[in-house]
Design a protein that fits this description.
The structure is a single chain. The chain has nine helices and 16 strands. By secondary structure, the protein is of the alpha+beta class. The chain has helices at residues 11-23, 89-107, 116-119, 125-134, 148-158, 178-182, 243-255, 285-291, 295-303; strands spanning 2-6, 27-31, 38-45, 48-55, 58-61, 67-71, 111-113, 142-145, 161-164, 174-175, 192-196, 202-208, 211-219, 234-239, 260-267, 273-279.
Length: 307
């Protein structure tokens, strides 16, 4: 049996469920919003992992679950817990359930997309950049500093710079402008990541198993994710990576311990590729909706052990 965990109406989860239906696969949905009706208990002994999962009146042996795709939100902000005081029975149940579920997912056999531990590299962009280099992909020239003079020296060496956060929390990518230089002294309170601007279109690569789907994005906004909000435009189209680059993306995904990844690249006018980061829980629906690439189908087939 396949288990989908999260909010059923969220696009990636809903799209994978639809594809599993089309494949005739046996699956169940663990709806986080009904956490009050969920329970899990498991143990590890000499024979392995044993336990049960209760889903809204149904009970399943954990040994019968062969694959899991999960996109869990922070249980502390579930709408159903709004107004519940800290330490209330409802909050204690929700925290205990999610804690036990996530711990099981770390050691459960089968295809888990993706376990939490390998996702950790995304919490530090500098650390992840070092891992990216190990798999043969270039990363932009980078400076992480809280020293304004170091930024100005880096700018003189590399020309136009962009800046963004160091953590895994999403931040809008901006070019360093004159008005930013005027307030550069503020970085003394918080180190910032600066990078040499890489010209050319963005390329988002989704890897699932050994399947690779590349999307080229042409935008008049530096951070295409915010094109609509900024009054700009972004055109997404399916593209084909050079075989060598595709293999590097597969190797990077598997090397990080992931089954499914969203890899952000830039393609220069000379055809070189630079890698910015690896998203270990990619919201692929935006790219599939704009290109028709069968990413959800590939995830479903992977979960069903058809690839």
């Amino acid at each position: 049996m396949i288990l989908l965990c999260g909010i059923p109406s969220e696009s990636p989860l809903a799209m994978v469920a639809k594809e599993l239906d089309a494949l005739g696969a046996d699956y169940r949905v663990l709806n986080q919003r009904k956490v009050a009706a969920l329970d899990i208990a498991w143990q590890v002994d000499g024979s392995g992992i044993d336990g049960k999962l209760g889903l809204e009146g149904e009970a399943f042996l954990l040994t019968d679950i062969g694959a899991v795709y999960f996109r869990l939100m922070d249980d502390r902000i579930l709408p159903e817990l709004d107004g519940e005081p800290d330490g209330s029975p409802a909050r204690r149940h929700a925290r205990g359930f999610h804690d036990a579920l996530l711990r099981w997912l770390e050691i459960a056999p089968g295809r888990i997309v993706n376990r939490s531990e390998p996702q950790g590299s995304n919490g530090s962009k500098p650390y992840q950049a070092q891992l990216i280099r190990q798999y043969g992909l270039q990363v932009p020239e980078t400076l992480i500093t809280n020293d304004p003079d170091a930024v100005l020296a880096f700018q003189r060496e590399h020309g136009t710079l962009i800046y963004k956060s160091i953590s895994g929390v999403r931040s809008i990518v901006h070019a360093l402008r004159e008005e930013d230089i005027e307030r550069l002294d503020l970085i003394r309170w918080c180190p910032v990541q600066f990078q040499a601007l890489v010209p050319g279109p963005d390329v988002r690569v989704h890897v699932i198993g050994r399947q690779v789907y590349a999307t080229e994005i042409v935008s008049d906004i530096l951070d295409y994710r915010y094109a609509r909000r900024s009054g700009g435009s972004a055109e997404l189209r399916a593209t084909e990576l050079p075989a060598e680059t595709a293999e590097k993306c597969i190797a990077l995904t598997h090397g990080l311990g992931l089954a499914f990844a969203g890899i952000d690249l830039k393609m220069t006018p000379d055809g070189e590729f630079y890698c910015f980061e690896v998203n270990p829980c990619p919201a692929f629906s935006f790219y599939e909706a704009n290109t028709g690439q069968p990413i959800a189908h590939a995830v479903a087939r992977y979960l069903a052990d058809m690839d």
